[in-house]
Each structure stands twice: as C-alpha cells, then as structure tokens.
Specification:
This protein is an alpha/beta fold and about 375 residues long. Helices cover about 30% and strands about 20% of the residues. It binds guanosine-5'-triphosphate (GTP), magnesium ion (MG) and zinc ion. GO terms for molecular function: GTP binding; GTPase activity; metal ion binding; rRNA binding.
Length: about 375
C-alpha cells in the first residue's frame, strides 16, 4: 500500500501506517509493510495488517489531532493483542475538515441522475465546494440505468460547457466501472456527494471486502437516509485508496467573493480569451467584463457571489462591530450594539432584479470599485 501513500519519507527504522478509520479515541492503522520490514520486526510474529491504536498523551497535550488518512508512527506494537500507540503524525499534504480527512489528492463527486433527481443548483454547490479544496475533481453520474442513452448524452453535452466530463456509471449493471478505476488508481480519493446517490454501493462494487451498508432512498422524500455515518478508507485492488464519507445534502460555501471566481471553470475559460477591464473584476456588473454573458451557470455564479459578499460583510461586522453597529452603554457593565439607522439592510435579490440591478450598476460601477468592500447591489 506504500505506493499509494502521500510522498512523505517515513522516519527510518520506525513502524508507520495510515489511519483508515477513527472511532471515539481509537484509530485503526493500516501498517505500511515496507516500514515494518525496515523496523526490523521479526517476520515470524506474523504481524497483523491493522492495529487498533490510541494516541500518545504527548500528542493530546500539544493538541495534535489524528485524522483518517494521516500517516503516523506507531510505537510499542502489541502484535498478539493487535494494538499500538500513535506517537507521531507525519506532515500532511492536504487536509479537509468536512469530511475530516488528511492527505487526499482527489474528490470523486458522485451524483445520481435519478433517485434522487439531479439538481443542477445542488450539483453546482458541491462542485464549487469541491473546487475550493484545490484537490483534483472527478465527476461521476450514477444510476445511469434509470435513463436512456439520449438523456445521458443530453447530460454529457450540458455539463461539457461547465468544464466537466462526467463518468456515467451504474453499479447495478457494472457500467463505467473500468473507466472509473483508471481515474482512481493514484493516491487517495474522497468519495463525496449527497445521501442516497450510491457512494457506498459503488465502493462495495469496487472493493467487495469493504461490505458497506447501503439503504434505499426514502420514497416520500426521494432522498437518501444518511446510511454512512463515518469516514473510512479502503484499498483498491489496482492501487489507490478510497474514502467513503457520509452524504450531506447542502454543503456550506465559505469562500470569499474573490475566490469564488476561481471555482467556476467557465470563468477561467472566458478569461483565457480576453481580459476584463478591471483587475479585481467580480464579473457581476462591471463594464468591460468578458465573463458576464449567456452561459448556463452565470445566474448561479451571481447568486453565490451575492451570498459570498453578504457573508464577507457579516464577518467584517463581527470583527468590527463599532464600524457598522452603534455601541450603546446602558448603565454599568451593560453594553449593547444596535444597527446604525442610516445603513440599508443587505438583501438577496431575485434573478430578475439581479438583471435589473446590472443595468443600474453600470452607472455606479466606478463608485463601487472605489469602495470595494461594499456590496455591488447594496442600495445607495
Ligand atoms: N438504479 C440504481 N440504483 C442504485 C445504483 N447504485 C445504488 N443504487 C441504490 O441507491 C440506494 C442508495 O445507495 P447507497 O450506496 O446507500 O447510497 P450512499 O450514497 O452511500 O448514501 P449515504 O450513505 O446515505 O450517503 C440503494 O437503494 C442502492 O441500491 C445503481 O447503479 N442503479
Ligand atoms: Mg453510504
Ligand atoms: Zn469581469
């Protein structure tokens, strides 16, 4: 398994492994066999492949967390009891907090075409979230046995301009799995997507030994039942590690307005062929913008941008309440904050009013650029 692990050099002569699951304060560590050899462990002991480990108190004291995917040094293995203690966490090449996982290099985003029906808005949210990790993305559309070839081709053609070339799969009919395996061979892949799209079914197909629990999509709501509850890593026969994760239906976006522009491949495509007039263009209402236009997800971009600006303003307000809120001293030790009356409340716009405000904005764009901490569609 060492070939699929992140390329940190294990400390010489020490026993290392990868954390494949975490449960309460226990860590399941898959041992790196080459490190076991270099640690000069007697082969006669028939070392087990996995040890159930605790975390050394020293790590607890320095607040060092241990995550699934971590490469760790294991001390004092008890081969018969199959136990050990983690004494060191090797440097991580990446770290995600939701789902909590270290050293992954790819996200396999799984969406069902039907059951539950593919929702382009939800898919875009997941894609943006996935893009924000900086990891490679492989988009996989599952349950393609539920649609005909024409519908599949239509989805393919629709997603191409988004910048994605999805792999269509059906675990029921074994379609697309070989193609997928090729994309999963290298490194560690996080399988992500809404509940009920068939993530665990897919992993079971690829790695029968995983034997993961699978549940039917709820008839009433057409949603998954959140069958998978924790993150766990599995090794593929042809190389590569896969992490099953609990499905979640609405990832929260927490990126800045500036970062958001990097998470839509369409924007990068348009910037390849031309430049916006302003360097810090948010591609919303600025004149001389090459990004604004008739592409399918542009209204979604504007919606997410509006959310990102709103979030940024809230964060600024929290960081500096005096700037936006009026500080009121009400007697001894009692300070309250109230909104300043001359500030207009920021509101989220409908698509139609977004279009209208684009027109209005053109007139005041200079203004906006001079006060770029202000939302573009805030009322003057
Ligand atoms: N039609 C069809 N149904 C599938 C396919 N793959 C999985 N399913 C069904 O989809 C349902 C959900 O599958 P799971 O594998 O539990 O989905 P999951 O994504 O792991 O869900 P969570 O663990 O809740 O996040 C089950 O009823 C599966 O039998 C497929 O290729 N075609
Ligand atoms: Mg599952
Ligand atoms: Zn622009």
């Amino acid at each position: 398994m060492s070939s699929d692990l992140p390329s940190t050099t294990p400390p010489d002569g020490k026993l290392t492994g990868t954390v494949v699951a975490v449960q309460a304060n226990y860590y399941f560590v898959q041992l790196d066999t080459t490190s076991a050899a270099s640690a000069n462990l007697p082969p006669a002991l028939h070392q087990p492949q996995q040890l159930l480990c605790t975390r050394r108190t020293r790590l607890k004291k320095i607040g060092q967390k241990v995550m699934v995917g971590d490469q760790v040094v294991v001390d004092q293995p008890d081969w018969q009891g199959k136990r050990g203690a983690i004494s060191q966490v090797l440097p991580r090449s990446s770290q995600l907090d939701r789902p909590p996982i270290a050293n992954a290099n790819q996200i396999l985003l799984v969406f069902a075409i039907e059951e539950p029906t593919l929702d382009p808005h939800q898919l875009t949210r997941f894609l943006v979230k996935a893009e924000s990790t900086g990891l490679q993305i492989c988009l996989c559309l599952s349950k393609c046995d539920l649609i005909d070839a024409a519908a599949q081709a239509a989805w393919h053609d629709r997603l191409k301009p988004w910048g994605y070339d999805p792999v269509f799969i059906s675990t029921y009919h074994g379609i697309g799995l070989e193609q997928l395996k090729q994309q999963l061979r290298r490194g560690m892949t996080i399988v992500s997507g809404p509940s009920g799209v068939g993530k665990s079914s897919l992993i079971n197909q690829l790695i029968p030994a995983a034997d993961l629990r699978v549940s039917e999509v709820s008839g009433k709501l057409g949603r998954g039942r959140h069958t998978t509850r924790h993150v766990e890593l599995f090794e593929l026969a042809d190389g590569g590690l896969l992490a099953d994760t609990p499905g979640f239906n609405q990832p929260d976006l927490d990126c800045s307005p500036e970062a958001l522009t990097q998470y839509f491949p369409e924007i990068a495509q348009r910037l390849q062929t031309g430049n916006c007039q302003f360097n810090n263009c948010r591609h919303h209402a600025e004149p001389g913008c090459v990004v604004q236009g008739e592409w399918e997800r542009y209204p979604l971009y504007v919606q997410f941008l509006t959310e990102a600006i709103e979030r940024q303003q809230q964060q600024q307000q929290q960081a500096d309440p005096d700037a936006i809120m009026k500080r009121k001293v009400r007697g001894k030790d009692q300070v309250t904050y109230e909104p300043r009356l001359n500030r207009h409340k920021y509101r989220q716009e409908s698509r139609r009013s977004t279009k209208q405000s684009v027109q209005v904005m053109k007139g005041r764009v200079e203004d906006f650029l001079d006060h770029s901490d202000q939302a573009p569609d805030e009322e003057a």
